Amino acid sequence: MRLQGRFLANDKPKSTYRKGMNVAVVEGVWAMLLLTMLSGPFLTAYLLYLGANSKQIGLVLAIPALANLLQVLAAMYMQKLANRKRAFILFTSTHRLIGLSTGLIPFIFPKDLWLISFIVIFFIYAVVNAFAGVIWTSLISDMVPNQIRGKYFGIRNVITSAVNSTGLYITGIVIDAYPGALGFNIMYAIAAVTVVMNIIYFTKYPNPHFEKSEGMKLGTFVLRPFRDRIFFKGLVFLTLWTLVVTMTHPFFSYVMLDVLNVPYPTVANLVILQTVASMAGFYACGLLSRRFSERTLLLGALPFLAAAALLWSALNVLPQLLVLIIIYTLLGFGLGSYNQQIFIFMIGSSSKAERPIYIAVFSAITGIAGFIGPTLGGIVFEELKAYPLWMQEYGLFLLLGVVLLVLAVIVAPIVFRKPQNKL
Predict the structure, then answer these.
(1) CA dist 373 to 330, 354, 390, 398, 405, Å?
(2) What stretches of 178-228 show up as alpha helix (H) in DSSP?
(3) pTM of the model
(4) Could you give all domains of the chain from N- to C-terminal order, each with its CATH number?
């Protein structure tokens, strides 16, 4: 964590930046530990324990994206904030506590209400996160100077991903050693500790001046990102990309657990491998961020995500474990690079005053695709049960991988082409 201090070590007037950046790293560690247990393969495993099928899993996976539509309201709400840090603490703490409460469902509700109770609570959890996400992104982007964003977020993501790997490994051992209710109870007990620590570090964030869009009409404020031609072109492409990706990657865990019957520890180890590979992606982008633009680095990440879907077809000719190792290595490196560049792209085109609405519009529009994708994917996987097994194992992934590859190598270079200066 001392690495962040080096960025501004010789700039004493900006010591508030250094303090905030270091706090954000430690807070991110606790947040990542919690996220490890409340998302990904363990969310899928918990849903299967509660009695969910593929359609219902797809619906749950789609809920956060649907809730992101509310980020436009969150951006407008921020224009009325008297204290951004106070709102940040309120929304993020509430979000963590609601997520933790899903572990109480088997103790409170009868078994036939487990799944519907989870969906309702998870929806509230996602709605609160829509507000928390806009506020956090606005706050952290004001804390980190533009010239070191790539390097800082690269290092922060490497550290949090390393912690994620540890959390995945420990949780995988727990779930495998104590199958059923006991394993999930232990998991949520650990999650409770991370929530407490996360909230403590929320209070340590600095409260930099929040620049509002004073004097700008509400309609002009909301429409500003749509009038930014470069941002809008990228938004349209990334919305289509999100639609296809969310029909694909979220169901990797489902296919392994429910179709291929891969053991929990193996799934956990593969996700750890993905996390380690994503660390490499974060680190590589951090190093290259001063030599190449975020557009160039984003274009380099897309083919990895397409290849991760295409390679499921290799299950037909190569050993299962070998194929899954290659898939999760490519997926991790691609996601690490992609997520970092998307964050920088999202906040890079806007002024401080306009940043919340850029974040909100991006999240809301891609959120529509992020809702449709998993929902449609869940329906398709349920229908595929009437077809040959290979269609569930790799057939759909192969088809969607071809679509992703075309988008990555043909469409994306056109969309993200650097504008030519007019003479």
Answers:
(1) 21, 29, 21, 16, 17
(2) 181-202, 218-223
(3) 0.69
(4) 2-415 (1.20.1250.20)
